[in-house]
Description:
By secondary structure, the protein is α/β, with parallel strands linked by helices. It contains 11 helices and 13 strands. The protein has helices at 42-52, 67-78, 130-134, 145-148, 150-165, 184-195, 205-212, 217-227, 265-279, 283-298, 310-320, and strands at residues 11-14, 18-23, 35-40, 57-64, 82-89, 96-101, 109-114, 138-142, 169-173, 200-204, 231-235, 241-245, 248-252. Strands 5-4-1-8-9-10-11-12-13 form a 9-stranded mixed sheet, with helices on both faces. A 4-stranded mixed sheet has the order 3-2-6-7. Helix 1 packs across helix 9, helix 9 packs antiparallel against helix 10 and helix 10 (283-298) crosses helix 11. The longest helix has 16 residues, at 150-165. It starts with 10 loop residues before the first strand and ends with a helix. Mean pLDDT is 95; it is low at 1-6.
Amino acid sequence: MYGVKESVVEVVCIGEPIVQFNAVTPGPLRYVNLFEKHVGGPETTVAVCVRRLEHASGLIGRVGDDELGHFITSWLRGVDVDTSYVKVDSSGPTAICLVQRGYPIPGRSKVQYYRKGSAGSRLAPEDIDKEFISGARVVHLSGVTPAISQSATDACLKAIVTAGENGVLVSLDTQIRPQLWESLDDAASVIMKFVEFANILFTDLGDAEILIGESNPERVIQVFKSIGVDVVVLRLGERGAIASRGSELAEAEPLPISIEDPLGAGEALAGTFLSCLIEGRSLFESLRKSMISWSLVASIRGEQTNLPTSRDLDGAFRALYP
């Protein structure tokens, strides 16, 4: 195992859970009449993925005291994610987003967020329980949460400092969402502070260009590792992903699928990779399994519906890589 320790909740995720209304038909939202309702949010989806793969996970965040907030907590409890530190906050609504599919670029989704003043944006340092963090193996967060408020940024910083002080691995997915930041310079300044604490980093070439001014995969990996990141996983979209740990380098391609909705696929990759890391899998197996999960989620609408179970993922891996 990669420096992980025994714990009850193995992976603690920190972030805002949201309700995603996903257009059933492609095209501009103004013409869409039917939507599917799903639980979403990058950290939330990672927590569900990890639990689906038979590792205990928990979420720290806030939802509104409304029907959508209760929908989120009911869903998470139903899939056995620890919600002990998901607060129900009556001072703001549960955040939502609308997903426009296949327009203006076929095969890609466009997301409109409604999260200003949401309960989740009120995440604060007092929400971070030191015992919950220190008892985990991995703490995972994304670049989305620091974008939603200063108090959320402060909460995330408290979490990763607590993790570092207690030998807990810090996992960061950069996930720069330009619509949530005042500017890309602001995004880079804040997220790079978190990169300095990260043991495991998930990113892509677009984010790397913003953060470190590099878009060559080899250079991206080199620069992040020179900062002190131990494991770098570089997503390349439909071309697959590259992972680097020490002197090891692994590459994997997605399955030959028709992409229905790529939202949540990156989180499926991250959750699967973290689960494999906890299990002590090789870098190659970890990345290949992660790309299987990526492909499964990208093939349907909704971030969490098609997340594989451990049994199904193992079966797919054996069939594809005999």
